[in-house]
Amino acid sequence: MVVFIKDSNEIVDTKPIDFEEGHEGELENLIIDNPEIFPVKDLSGRESAKWIPITKQLGLETGILDTLGIDDEGTIYIIENKLSVNPDKKTVRQQVSDYAFGLMDLKEYFDGWKQFCEKIENSNKSKTAEGRSFHNKSLEEIIKENVDADSFDECWDGVKTNFDAGHYTLVVAMNRIPKQLRIAIDGQNEIDEKHKFPLFALEVNEFEGDSNKTIIVTSTYPYDLADLKRKKSQSRVVYENNMKKFQEQFEKTFTGTEEQRKIFDDFRVELEKIASSTEFNDSETVKILPRFDNFAATRSPIVLVSNGDFKFQFDQVLEYEHNRGPGRLTNEARELKEKMCMIPEIKKVFDERPDKVEFRIKPEIWLPNQKQMLKIIKEVFVESDGS
Q1: Do 284 and 320 fall into the same domain?
Q2: 170, part of any domain
Q3: Which residues have CB under 8 Å from 286's CB, separation 6+?
């Protein structure tokens, strides 16, 4: 991104200020200390909305939640801060979702709301909260400081209602939103039928202008709540149309038995469940391309073809050296190939073409091994930490 300043008739460019590796705390504090940066009006769909940070580094059973905030109507916002240089960004969608599950787990206790309030107050007494607006303050005190007296009950009740219902707006704050995260966000919002966990990305960049002024530029993905709902509606229609085409082609081209058809359908459904999102190709033969958050690539590493074939795309699990093309296998590729080679029928196909990186396997070979294959795919692309 390039930002220019127009001063009279002169156009002056600015110098980007990069966050240093491992300094997510700087991004976190920038948003906390400047609440107007947070796009609460876009995310809530209300022009009058006000965002209120209430704590940071909140310990939960599922991990340390970076930033927790609310708006003046009681919507709860969970924020995970990541820098583009951080290798953990591949799993960031799962991290922020885990924090929501951690809060949902907390509400299951008979005094869950009380524990929630106590956790916030205790967190705000810690060293990590020093210097922030919520330091040494309870949730009640924070709300009283940020909303009119007439609006206190509405905000307080709204927070409690959303906590009890397990409704949270999830936000990933980064200095650069990668394409893989946009794909994961669309997939998450597509799955979230009731909008209990709407997921957004917030991009924050700083630029150095003249006179020691700093320019802050932000953008969100999706653009706003209306855009999220529009994308969800459109993607559902696209998904249904593509799946209809896939199933029509499958009925015409699959030559297996009725039992094999059922096994194939069951496998497809289970594969979609563990994938972060599902895409389809644009070619004449329809293919299902599952996407996984814990794997950064422009294409899917595995493909399900409408004639029943299963395709491995090892070229998508190769490390690419700058200007040199494909390099060595990534950890995911090695693990995927090694584990699939534990299935004799699959290993035989690999061994027959040792110099190839793409393998198309007929249904009569892979369908009898589909349960083990599904288990391996889950281990490599879902449960792995990507290290």
Answers
A1: yes
A2: yes
A3: 242, 245, 246, 249, 280, 306
